[in-house]
Amino acid sequence: MAPSLWFLLGIHLALHHTAAPQHPHFGTPNIIFEEHKGWMYANYVNSILTSVMNKATEAEWNYVTNLTEYNKHVKVAASLALRKLQQQISKNVDHFRWTEFRNPVTKRIFEKLAGLGASVLSHEKEDEMTKLIAEMQEHHASAKICSRFSYPYQHCPLSLDPEIINTMRTSRDYCELLHYWNEWRRVAGKPMQQKFLRYVQLQNEAAILSGFHDASVTWIGSYEDDNFEQKMAQIWEQIKPLYMHLHAYVRSKLRDVYGWQRVSKFGPIPAHLLGHIHAQKWTGILDITVPYPNKPAINITDTMLQMNMTVLGIFRYAEEFFTSMGLPAMPRTFWTRSVLQKPWDRKVVCHPSAWDFYINNDVRIKQCTQINMDDFLTAHHEMGHVEYYLKYAKQHIVFRKGANAGFHEAIGDTISLSVATPKHLKAVGMLRHRWEDYETDINYLFSIALDKVAFIPSAYAYDLWRWNMFKGVYSPHQYNKAWWTLLLNYQGICPAVRRSWDDFDPPSKYHIAADVPYIRYFVSIILQFQFYKALCDEANHVGPLHQCDFYHSKEAGRLFGHVMEMGSSKPWPEVLAILTRGKTRDLDAGPLLEYFMPLFRWLKARNRGEHVGWRSMDAQACPGINTCPRTNWYNLYHPWATGK
Asked: Is 385 annotated as a binding residue?
């Protein structure tokens, strides 16, 4: 029998046994006795659910590291089998009076179990939803574009990672950047329109059948805060002045490079000029925007190349940082089972990710790593996820996740903040010049702001768009216009090629195509600076916050490890209170603003006479002259592709 059939047979048997407690006979009401039975059932579920989640994760891994039809079929079957088991468990939980349980741990386990089967779609529609997401994910991973100077029927070899990413980061040719930007959306986004519309329908149908108004309620509800949307809006308003000054300064530098005809003094920035295919992280344009260009940059890429550093070496550096704090080393199987470079012989999803397989400390990273500083920091970030997996591995299966989704992202980024400091890079031999002066300090803070502050508005806007979409605020033919309206309002960017109802840009972003909520990244940006400040305090750091490095601090490691061990066993405000030694239980932008305060002062002084903010009458096109010569045959027969 094929392995997949053995797996499905195992699921059938598991479900047969799981059904036993459906109609428990409790006799005389006795909540203590019932709670004891509940605890026994929770332990049983822990065992069976761990095993089935392992099988489903293995199938998912096999698919994203080898995009074949067979692997997709196995992945879909495994996902549906897991979903069926989760729904059965959720039904069984209804036969316990768990809301009356006195033990808070047991009660929280049952609360989590009750939510496992939230979807009540028919088997056919559940199958359809799973396949839709897999197909959108596969399309994004396999999409390729032609070069700027291509001919009809020529093979188009350029994938997002590494070719498009590298070009967006390094090219300063306005028209080349525009070509790559527009072609990626044409190839990766537009063909997904009908699949995405159906996906939205199914998401909302599942939510409504589960008793919710729409799918946004379930997405937001995971943060266990009735005022979550309002709090996110308030935090954005706190950060907005810093972002607007960063935007104004960067716009002025881009105007120097590309001219006022293409970069308006008062308008939004053309999205293709910011060094990133989605204009989210602006580190790719550091060389043309750095405040003090005569000072050496805090960029270790050249040093890494001079050292002949390997991909494996990058991850060994990351591991050594964690072990220096007393946190676990990577298991032996991590090194043999991870995919740390892009394979040459098969299609893979290159988006970096960390994986927990739930048994035997089987943890892995998938990353198409290159030898540069960005990937050096990404390796530390992804290994932060893995450390979290290892630390909460002894928790019940329903608690083996971050205290909230933002916690998981923040763990790795907190480490990256320490790793990126000149102090740390000097300590590990990566930085070979002096950095202890004001101008170099501003350059360093500016480079971090291009990574962190520039990212914040999109992290908020992407899910604001999806929440509004689920709520029915936009009609389907308005989806793309609403997308660009939000990006204009929050990011201050615009498309240099006019968008229309016929375009569909959102699925060109991996997380949109792959059904991954994005507000976690907004939450994580706030949390990581709260975490960073807490660990710096624990390490007895003295001086400006942005200069803190807690490398080798066992005290910081003990506190961090203790918090990671909890997983989601406690509400996230309680976990945050433990990490901050009781100073706060809530999201707070204060540490982020403290970190960037020296740069904020510098930006405000530098921007005197510069317009701060942006004006535009049309979210679907940039103001000014944005056309380029038709440089390939596609554009010759599709003149709108270049804005003409």
From this structure: yes
Q: Is the pTM of this model over 0.70?
A: yes
How many C-beta atoms surround the C-beta of residue 436 within 10 A? 10
User: Could you tell me how many helices (H) and strands (E) the chain has, helices first?
Assistant: 26, 6
Which is the catalytic residue, given 511, 538, 541, 546?
511
Using alpha carbons, select from 401, 517, 459 the residue that is nearest to residue 115.
401
The C-alpha angle with vertex 480 and arms to 347 and 190, in degrees rounded to 5, equals 35
Would you list the domain boundaries of the chain? 3-117, 136-297+454-518+612-642
- Please report the sign of the dihedral spanned by the C-alpha atoms of residue 525, residue 449, residue 510, residue 486: positive
Q: Is 594 a catalytic residue?
A: no
pLDDT, tens digit (0-9, with 9 covering 90-100), for 408-453: 999 999 999 999 999 999 999 999 877 789 999 999 999 999 999 9
Name residue 145's beta-bridge partners. Answer: 158
Please work out, in degrees rounded to the nearest 5, the angle formed at the alpha carbon of residue 562 by the alpha carbons of 101 and 568. 40
Residue 223 is assigned to a ligand binding site: yes
Nearest residue to 463 (alpha-carbon basis) of 505, 506, 418, 426: 506
pLDDT tier for residue 30 given thresholds of 50, 70 and 90: confident
DSSP per-residue letters across 180-200: HHHHHIIIIIGGGHHHHHHHH
**Rounded to whole angstroms, what are the CA distances from 46 to 16, 167, 470?**
16, 47, 33
- Is 409 labelled as part of a ligand binding site? yes
Residues belonging to the chain? 644
Beta partners for 355?
Answer: 364
| DSSP per position, 85-124 | HHHHHHHHHTTS-GGG-S-HHHHHHHHHHHTTT-----HH
Q: Strand, coil or helix: what is 517?
A: coil
Backbone region of residue 119 per phi and psi (left: phi > 0; alpha: psi in -120 to 50; beta: other values): beta
Question: Do 404 and 572 touch, CB atoms closer than 8 A?
Answer: yes
- Name the phi and psi angles at 398, rounded to 5: -75, -15
- 3 state SS for 520-532: HHHHHHHHHHHHH
Look over the chain and give the mean of its residue pLDDT values, rounded to a whole number: 91
Q: What is the mean pLDDT of residues 171-181?
A: 96
Q: Rounded to the nearest 5 degrees, what angle is found at the Cα of 544, between the Cα atoms of 539 and 546?
A: 80
First to last CA, the chain: 59
Q: Which residue's entry shows tokens 């949390």?
A: 527
For residue 644, pLDDT over 80 is answered with no
Find out whether 248 and 610 touch, Cβ atoms under 8 Å.
yes
Strands (E), 16-172: 144-145, 158-159
What 3-state DSSP class applies to 531? Answer: helix
Residues paired with 270 in a beta bridge:
494
Q: How many CB atoms lie within 10 A of CB 593?
A: 15
Q: How far apart are CA 591 and CA 597, in angstroms?
A: 10
If DSSP codes are grouped into helix, strand and coil, which group holds residue 353? strand
The number of angstroms, rounded, from the C-alpha of 346 to the middle of its chain's C-alpha atoms is 24
| 100 phi-psi bin (left φ>0, alpha ψ -120 to 50, beta other) | alpha
The single-letter DSSP state of residue 589 is S
The answer, yes or no, to whether the previous bond of 162 is cis (omega within 30 of 0) is: yes
CA gap 259, 266 in Å, rounded: 13
Q: Which tokens in the block code for residue 47? A: 């065992």
What torsion, rounded to 10 degrees, do the Cα atoms 613, 618, 620, 623 define?
Answer: -70
382 in catalytic set: yes
From the list 382, 408, 538, 541, the catalytic residue is 382
Q: Where are the alpha helices (DSSP H) in 115-226?
A: 123-142, 165-170, 174-184, 193-209, 215-221
Q: Is 80 exceeded by the pLDDT of residue 20?
A: no
